[in-house]
Design a protein that fits this description.
Length: about 675
Amino acid sequence: MLEKKKIQEEAAVTADTDHEFSAADVEAVMKKYDRESNTRIWEGWQKWVVSAVMVAFSLFVIYVTLWATWLDLLRYPSFLGSILIIGYLVYPAKKGMQHVNYMPWYDWVLMLCGAVSFFYIALNAQDITMRVVGYSSLRSYELVLGILGFVSLVELCRRSVGLPILCVAGAFLAYALYYYLGVKHYDFMAGLGQVVYRLSYTTTGILSTPIQVCAKFIVVFIIFGAFLERTGISGFFIDLANCVAGSSSGGPAKVAVISSALCGMVSGSSVGNTVTTGSVTIPMMKKTGYAPEFAGAVEAAASTGGQIMPPIMGAAAFLMAEYVGVPYSEIIVCAILPAVLYFAGIFLSVHLEAKKLGLKGIPRNELPHFTMLIRRIYLLVPLVLLVVLVSTGARTMAWAAAISIVAAVLVSLPGVIGVSRSQTEESALMHFLKSFGGMIYNSLAGGAKSAITVAVACGMAGIIAGCITMTGLASQLITAIITVSGGLKPVALMLTMVCCIVLGMGVPTTANYCIMASTCAPILIKLGIPALAAHFFVFYFGIVADITPPVALAAYAGSAIAKSNPLKTGVNATKLAIAAFIIPYVFALNPQMLLIDAQPLEVVQIVITASLGMLGVCMGLMGYMGSVLKLPLRILAIAGGLCMIIPGGLTDIVGLAIVALVTLVSFWEKILNRRQTAS
């Protein structure tokens, strides 16, 4: 009781000092924790020129994706060269270099060198394809151009993505140079030429699978996300979550879980989702009575989970389909149950915490009315249309995204018309045309801007994959893991988990998965784990790096809004996201969790028992189920929950018995406490 009172008093004090987060506050937090938000300031005609370049890029990508039939060495270098142009126009060399309408000379040089390098490959694609059969066929100036393009890409990555991925890529690049100079005994120029040739002039390096999928699919979906965002769907998701769970015990935390799951599915950024939805939900949670560290953790854990939420999964679903060679619709089906269990774990945790603290929900008269949501249900049309078109195979992924963009434009019309009606009759039409045109223009420009970091990170992931391929390092990593683990799958999975979390620290979702798919997934496949389960395993553990200390960017962003201790917030977020640390082991050892080769009755059994198992785990972690659980009961609850999460008849029966026993003991203690209080 004393602990409960202390937490509520602390939350009440911090809530009194809180203020509503303005757009400036949100922007400040984003600039601190999200490199994508540290951009140049353009005003006047310069702003229009820069935005026009980005709009042209989006239109170019849509055209090439839908209609062009270009050679690979024409399509992908031209895409990357365009990315370098808009990238340097958007990102300054470091934070604070945000002088209005200013771009230093060295940025122009870097931009032009990089763009010229990749456009040279594009313009001479046929000649290079016919002539270049090895590094010895490179002309001296082509070697220089390859190096310049590489340096330009690396510097843009430093500005827009950050140092962690550069450290990883640098280590692999150093090994590649060592391989040719120290192992193969090439002379320096020959070794350097071999590396430049393979990384820049073939489709096994920078222009490999990550960039190919990015250019063909991901960027179009990013543009779709930009259009969808401007329809107001994020606000709809928050209002929907309020209607569903706002009035229940600890309602704001449940609102955060639901809204962040829905918004994060589309946004593709753990930090961005944490800040945007968290600026609304975190102050609400604190006012309700949640401790600041818990409030920030809830938002961070839920926002990070948005990356594993089908059907978009932060665009990684499209990459996974390409890597594994299965239909996109199969990826969606496999992702459903793990994602549901992940968010069920967070939802149950915040519910038990609310019950333990005796927290209330939001008064119903302060919540949006359900009829208002019904009137805005049309906002879901583009998202539903996308899922239907892709999952049924009625259209290719690119065409499905393009059609969904048109749908997003159409569903934005009611909002634009509503604002235009407030104008005078004479100016209403002009206001409508200006607002509608501005929405389309800004969406195209916003999509191009969001594509920069993803494309650059995919390019760096291609470098890593190229270095692994050219040196045969993958087989050495596999041998090392198998040797250390002694061939035991659980030990190998644990070692792979550590690698994924370390390699995934501070790396965007898409590039994160590309790195894991190139370095870690083959290890698990070699151990006999199904390819799809192996890729899901590395994807999950790459994602949770965003909330796992010490580099827990999403948790730190949540702590900045909650005004809480960053490390404690990260620890709480890790505890709330416990499902992400358990479920990958389950589906790696038993792929039925991914609904692979599972019969209908087995699916029903898995869903029910796994859900009850998550309840048991949450009971143990939160230490409450009707009454406060003592340590032995908490351990039993966690053990019973894990038994039920693992598919299998015997484990389900044992787990159910244990969790039921803990529940009965807990409620019996609650009855005894009430009797003692009454007497």
